[in-house]
Specification:
Elements lengths: L1 H24 L9 H9 L27 H32 L1
Helix pairs in contact: 1-3
């Protein structure tokens, strides 16, 4: 039981550190295109990546639409993205653990 408590503590502390990093460092993110976007621009197929799959983007350009282009918008988007990825990882881990224990 002590090992499970230590694992939970490690996960909570790690998530907290990731959230702090996402919040504090997001205003310093470069506005320049990333490598993939730059390559698509140079090779002439950037326009193909701008087609919306679901009709609209929830967080276009890593910002919250109703907050505009202010730094807090990117900070909140960083926190939400971190929480979504953490949730997905947690869910996949739970499914894999359940499959392993049923064997």
């Amino acid at each position: 039981m002590d090992k499970k408590k230590n694992n939970t503590r490690f996960i909570v502390i790690s998530l907290f550190i990731c959230l702090v990093i996402a919040f504090l460092l997001s205003p310093f993110a470069s506005s320049s295109p990333d490598g993939l976007e730059k390559a698509a621009e140079l090779l002439g197929f950037l326009h193909l990546g701008e087609v919306m799959v679901w009709g609209h983007s929830i967080m276009p350009d890593y910002s919250i639409p109703f907050l505009g282009e202010r730094p807090i918008s990117g900070m909140i988007a960083g926190i939400l993205g971190t929480l979504v990825l953490f949730g997905l990882g947690w869910g996949v881990g739970a499914v894999l653990k359940r499959k392993k224990s049923s064997k």
